[in-house]
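User: What would this chain look like folded?
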Amino acid sequence: MDLGTDGDAAYGPRRGGAEWLKGARIVRVLGIFYRPEGRMGEPEAVSFVLDDGQSVRLTCASDGTLHVGAGTWPQLPDWCVPAAQWEFAELAGLPQPPEGGWTVLSTDERRDERGEVHEAVIRCEGGRFVVVGGDTVGVRFTRGHRGAAAAT
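Assistant: Here's the prediction, encoded as structure tokens.
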């Protein structure tokens, strides 16, 4: 799997189109939280853990755009300083994965007028994940037939 974000040195350049997860099996979806804010806050990033042990991380930048890149699961990213104040945690409102995980059918990146990614959609068998950038990362799962365009 070749991941990265648009020129961000922390991730390296992404090669290819937006189909960066097609065929992968997602077994966990975890938020990366700054613990002093508690679980009340939104995650600073979301990590999609795959069945082969790799992970994909979506992180919001200071301008609200999303950066998509290889994750570091089970280690926290280097930017989690001091590390003792950060943690991976389950995200409220997301369903547990089915047996064997969600198989990704397709991905799509929605871009703003400058061409920056502000939303990513990961379509899976049984529904889709929508990840939105902002001050923090928002993520929701919508059930639908084979990941078809369900209302969000």
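The CA atoms of residues 24 and 34 lie 28 Å apart. If you want, I can go into more detail on any region.
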